[in-house]
Structure formats: C-alpha cells, structure tokens
Design a protein that fits this description.
This protein is an all-alpha fold and about 200 residues long. It contains eight helices and no strands. The termini are far apart.
Length: about 200
C-alpha cells in the first residue's frame, strides 16, 4: 500500500489508477477528494497495528483513545464524504458504483456505532464494531491483492473485473471479520464459564 500510495506523491495524473480516470481527471474537486483519500487512508490502516492490542489498551489508554479519535474523525469527517463523491465516478459501471457506495455506508455505520457503544460503556460491541470497521478499511488491501494475483488484461475486461473485485473484497473481508467476532465471542463465553466453579468441567474442552 505504501508503494501504491507513494506513486501519487508527485501529483502527476498519468500514473497508477489515475490513468483509468481520464474522463474525470480535469475535475479539480474529484482530484482533490482523490488525493485527500489516498493520503489520509494510510492513517486508518496504520491504526490497526495498535488499536487491537490489549497490551496497549491496558498500559496506555490515553494513546489508545488518541489513535481511536484520529481513526474516527479521519473516516467520518474526511473519508466518508470524500469516498461518497469518488464512488459516484468509480470504475465498473453501476455494479462498481453500488459496490463502493455500499462499502462506504458500512464503513461509516460500523465506525460511528463503535464510538456510540464505547461511550455507553459497551466494550464488547465497541470491539466488535471496530473489527467490522477495520475490515472495511482493509478492503483497499484485499482489492489490490486480488487484482495483482488474478487480473490480466488479455483475459478480463477491466471494468467488469474492477466491479466484481469491489464486491468480492467487501464480502471476503466482512466474512473474515464475522468469523473473528464469532470466535472471540465463543472464547469469552468459554472463559466466563471457566471462572464459574460450578462449571469447571467446561475448561477441559
């Protein structure tokens, strides 16, 4: 991702993804939203290296909250509205547009309610919604992995492949997030049972 993002640091419009956006490249507002998104998303991705660390949470709650606020405002104030505009002009036709709009809506929804739950003191749902939120964040990585492995312009239509890849990345990441949340819930349930002296036999399974 750093390599992908770094190619846009020159602000040239004939590199990477921008080569396929000649129809909107002259739109200064679209281009502004693109650069804001591409350079700010790195902060969201890096947040995952710290925010799921129990050690950091226990040893430095202030840092956890600070990074969490940066992640929250980055998505809700900067990327959510910006990606809405970008989605309307996305590749892949109507399938790609609907895919990106769905992804953006879920991104905002999971991120917003992760904060709502933590303010209510519901840490379980806060963590679960953050897992889903970060799952949306990392679709940017999943999308590029799939593209680099499977796309070949002699075999696939770029527009169709792009549109399908949006949905595949979203479904794959949400499925992984769901499995993580489910496994985590089962682990906590078993751990809770093990602390109950009347259910010690459960700890042997």
């Amino acid at each position: 991702m750093l390599k992908t993002i770094s190619q846009y640091s020159t602000l040239e419009t004939n590199v990477g993804f921008l080569r396929f956006k000649r129809n909107v490249i002259e739109n200064r507002y679209w281009l502004l939203f693109f650069y804001i998104h591409i350079f700010s998303i790195i902060l969201c991705l890096l947040a995952g290296l710290t925010q799921f660390s129990e050690r950091l949470l226990n040893e430095n709650r202030k840092l956890h909250r600070l990074i969490g606020k940066i992640y929250f405002y980055n998505i809700l104030i900067i990327n959510f509205p910006g990606c809405f505009i970008l989605a309307l002009f996305s590749n892949g036709g109507i399938i790609g547009i609907i895919g990106f709009l769905t992804q953006n809506f879920l991104w905002g929804y999971f991120t917003l309610f992760a904060v709502v739950y933590v303010r209510k003191g519901d840490l379980k749902n806060h963590k679960n919604f953050m897992i889903f939120s970060y799952g949306i964040t990392t679709t940017a990585i999943t999308f590029r992995i799939i593209k680099n492995i499977f796309y070949h312009d002699a075999i696939f239509s770029y527009q169709l492949f792009y549109a399908l890849n949006v949905w595949i990345s979203l479904i794959l990441n949400m499925s992984i997030a769901y499995i993580i949340v489910k496994k985590k819930s089962q682990y906590l349930s078993l751990k809770s049972n093990c602390t109950d002296k009347n259910k010690e036999s459960n700890c042997d399974t």
